[in-house]
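Protocol step 4 of 6: structure prediction from sequence.
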Amino acid sequence: MRRRALLLGSLTGLGAIGLAPVVAWAQDGWDPRITDFDKVLGSPDAPVTIVEYSSYTCPHCARFHKETLPRLKTEYIDTGVARLVFRDFPLDGMALRAGMMARCLPDPLFFSMNEVLFAQQQDWARAADPVGALGNLGRVAGLNQDAFQACMADEALADRIIQLRLEGAEHYGVNSTPTFVINGEVLAGAQPFERFASLIEAAR
């Protein structure tokens, strides 16, 4: 509990980013260290793995999900060339709670809720009662009030999400969102589709 409070207290202001260059972080034989806690979109046999570190309250992350991911999905994920591994990198307490709510839904609903959270970010994150707004989104997806409250009180789940953030910082130097690791290459920022495409084509 204390570690979580201290960590979240230090997160404010880390969401602002610029378009940073690709950084060669890993050597040949990169292991994305996928676990059962990761949320994966696409074929497990895809030759290219895109690990995404995002915060649900980050406007740059929302822009990526609205403008770039749909085309990546159509051209590379749905065709079996790439898979997307989503990892929370919460920049504040509301991003943490949003990640908890999404993960309390059944797995088949995760990426649908992921899309909703980013598409409606301005509505729920800036609501007078953002936790209540999250609860409303959860109820639409089938998470009743009791289940939502239990989800928000799940300290083990919160700690696992925070651990994703700590591991992203440790393994790849992530310090802003969104940050991507594409077959071992670190790419920071909500960059255009063409930048992702060039790295995917080089890695496939």
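Step 5 (inspection) to follow. The longest helix spans residues 59-77.
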